[in-house]
Structures are given as C-alpha cells and as structure tokens.
Amino acid sequence: MSRPQKLNALLQQIEKAQSLGEIGAVLAQFQTLIEVAHVNYSWLDHSDGIIGCSTLPEAWLARYAAQRYHRIDPVVLGCYTAFYPVDWRDLDWSSRVASAFRKDALAHGVGPQGFSIPVRGPSGQYAVFSVYSACDDAEWSRFTRKMSRDLILVAHYVNRRALALETSFEPLPEQPLSAREAQALSLLAEGHSRAHVAQMLDISEHTLRVYIEGARDKLQAQNTTHAVARAIAIGLIAV
C-alpha cells in the first residue's frame, strides 16, 4: 500500500474513532508512517484545561499538566495568533520563562524540532496539532516542505472528530459583528493590505478604519491583529 493510500486509511479510522484514546492509537500509526518522534493533539477548553491525545511520554504529559505549561508555552501562545502552520524555529524562545520551559521539555525527550498546526472550531474552540523530531535543521526543513499539507489535513480530521466526541463542549457566546466588520477582518486575515481591502469593499480607507475600530471595540482587542485572532477563535470569521 502506498503512503497516500495509508494516509487515507488513517483518515477513515479517525472518522470512525469512538474515543480520544482510539484517535491516539491512530496518531501512533501516523507517527510511524511519517517517521517523526511524536504526534500531539491538544484542545484547550474554556475551563483552562487540556483535552487531547498524544504519543508523547506520559511523564512529560503529566508534568506539562501539573505545571500548567499551556499558559506560558510559546507554541500554544504563538499558534493562537497564527493563521498558518508554525515552525518552532520561528517562535521567540528568548525569555527566561520560555527558555526554562524548553530546557524542561528537552530533558523529557521533547524536541528540539517541532511543527504545529493551529486549529479552530466553532465559537471559540482552539486546539494545536504538533509533530516533533530530533533531526537537524536541514532535514526538518525538507520534512516540513514535503509534509505540511498532510499535517494540516490530519489536524483538521482529528479536531473535527474530537468535537463530535466531546459532547460537553459549550461554545462561547458570539460577539455581534456587522457584515462589513466581519468582511474587513476576514480580508485582513487573508493577508491583504488595508488599501487593498478598502478597494475590494469599494469603500474609503477612512470608512474601513471605522469598521476595524468598531470590530476591535466589540472584541475588546488591543490592536487589529488581536481583533482578527479573536474573531477567528470565537468563530466569527474563517480563514
């Protein structure tokens, strides 16, 4: 069976999984298929807890939860404001807290290479799907270029199934954005400049600024990037 056929078979298993444990078993197969050290799916729920499945060492998972590392983990924080996959090499690990966290992770056999997919579901659901390796930079660059599309696909299959299985999930209340405010944030999220967004919406840049400021106020965002991230997290816009 070819690799694409094996991947399709794993996606079907994810769709049929009846528990997060079963999804975890499929991730173990996926880990072997793509030849990485570990695969991890973490859903950060509204009560500040973590739901997920992983091939990571149990000792590290227990320590991560006990230390509440998700509050300072540069991967979790970096993915929250990202719209595309995140290579850990592009994150800021320079702070004392981040440096200590990374040292602890390495001591538990996690990393040093990592590639994470931010995944967002309806009304505020946020999760991170990650793969880990101990290879060198050149090999990791080749891997991520080759596998990023498959990783994104698996991440969304896992998240969709996890949502279906987690019946206790209660969406956050939605903030009301006007149609124009939502359009403006959506286009900015796609990477368009303000001038281009104004042109696409056939409005002046001044009017666009009014829409953006209105959205920022409703979302209680510190800046436009924060507003876009919150709108995606709450499920008001999709990228």
Automatic annotation (TrEMBL):
Any one Gene Ontology molecular-function term assigned to this protein's record: DNA binding
Stored PROSITE patterns: HTH_LUXR_2
Record bears the keyword DNA damage: no
Key words, A-Z: DNA-binding, Transcription, Transcription regulation
Protein name stated in the entry: HTH-type quorum sensing-dependent transcriptional regulator VjbR
Source organism: Tritonibacter horizontis
Record-annotated HTH luxR-type domain positions: 170-235
Membrane-spanning ranges: none
Family matches, as Pfam families: Autoind_bind, GerE
GO biological process: regulation of DNA-templated transcription
